[in-house]
Request: fold
Amino acid sequence: MSEAEVFKVRNRLAQHVAEPGGMTAGMANSRAGRELAAQQGRSYEAIGETLETLEWLCDTRDAPMDSVYDLSTQVLDIAGLFDDKQLCRAAYSLCELSDKLRTREGEDWASIKLHVNGLRLIWNTEAAGREHLDAMVEGLWALTDRLRVDDSEGETEKPSAE
Reply:
């Protein structure tokens, strides 16, 4: 019989983790925060451009609800990166409204325009001065909640105002 030969398998990932010069999770998180903050100005410009497109769609009133939904999710995605809760809640309300409308194959441009105007107001207001806009966001949700896809659907889950 032959003797069993034992050898150690080298794991490249384990070797790289053990090498000096890496960073901790806290360091990586701090770096990511700095990099994200550096992009905030350009990101908010992109929200402004998206709002201009939404305003144009409201003026022409000939776009499918899928376009309104897609644009409102862009606002939601970017605002979410920067934890802009009010802008997120208003954009999410527009997402819900446009989703309900496209499910019904309907249109309600007045409600969409109201949402877009609300988004523009939030976007133009400094974060420190937005506390008075909470009631407006609640009103947008009330408008969205009044539209139901069918009678069997329950209440729309709206995000808290935390």
Summary: The chain has seven helices and no strands.
